[in-house]
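Anyone? Bumping this.
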Amino acid sequence: MSFHQELRVAESIARQAGLHVLRERARHMEVSIKAPNDLVTNVDRSSEQLITAAIREHFPGDAILGEEYGVTPGEDASQNTGSRRWLIDPIDGTANFAMGIPLYCVSIALQVDGQTVVGVIYEPNRDELFSARRGMPALLNGEPIDVSSCDRVANAVLVTGFPSGRGEVFERAIEQFVHLTRSSRGVRRLGSAAIDLAYVACGRIDAFWEYGLSPWDTGAGYLLVECAGGKITDIEGAPYHVDGPSILASNGALHHELQNALRV
Ligand code: 2AM
Ligand code: CA
Ligand code: CA
Ligand code: CA
C-alpha cells in the first residue's frame, strides 16, 4: 500500500482545519478550563468535528482517535478496515492559541497496525504544511526536508516541553531543562509538541524531548522526523511508541550524547 490517496486527503483536511481555526479565532473564541494547567476552546472542538467528518466521508471504515472526542469506531462495518486508526490533534498548542501566540498547528496521522504511515502537520499562521508517508522523503510545502547535521550537544539548539501535572516527572523534566540549558547552545519551549517535531524534521531545531505526551501529539511528527533522516526513541533509548511514557527525537547524530545528558 502506498497511501498516496490518504496523504492527499490528510493534507487537504489539515489545511481546511488550519484555516478554520484562524477564522474562528477572529470570529468567536471561548476558552474553558479542563484542569488548572489545561485549557480548551470551542475552536478545538469544532476543528476536531470538521476533521472527523471529512475523514469519515473519505474512509468510513476507519477508526478515529481525537483529543477532544476520544475514539470513534469505523462507521461502515462493510468497509471496516480493522487495523487502521487516524490520530487527530485539532489544535496542538491550545495555550498559545488561547493567548494569541501564533505557534499552534493541526496534526493528523494515519496508523496501520500501530505504526504511522501518513503524517501531516499544518501551521496556519506560517502557511507551512509538513507531510510524510512511510518510505518517502518528508516534505515542507512539497519540498523535501532534512534533519540538521549538528553532532555535539554543546553546539545544539534543543526544544522540550513540561508535563501539565506537578510531580516526580515534572521535577525531572525541570532538572533536565536546567542541565541542558547549561550544556547546549539553548533550549526552547514552544508549547506545541507537533511543531517541535516538525522543526526537528526540517532542521530548524537539532533535537526534542518530552514526557507524558499522547498519541495525537506525536503520531504525525514522529513519522516526519523518521522520513527526514532523524532518530526517535524514548528518553531511555528504548523503541518509541505513541502510547509510551516519553519521546526523544533528534537528527540522529546527537542522539546518543543527548540521551546520556538527559540522565541527570
Ligand atoms: P495541546 O495544546 O494539544 O493540549 C505543550 O507542552 C504541549 O503539550 C502541547 O503539544 C500540548 O498539546 C501538550 N499537552 C498534552 N497534554 C497537555 C495538558 N494536559 N496540558 C497542556 N498541554 C498538554
Ligand atoms: Ca489539549
Ligand atoms: Ca496536543
Ligand atoms: Ca490539542
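Late reply, but here is one note on the structure posted above: The first strand starts at residue 31 and ends at 35.
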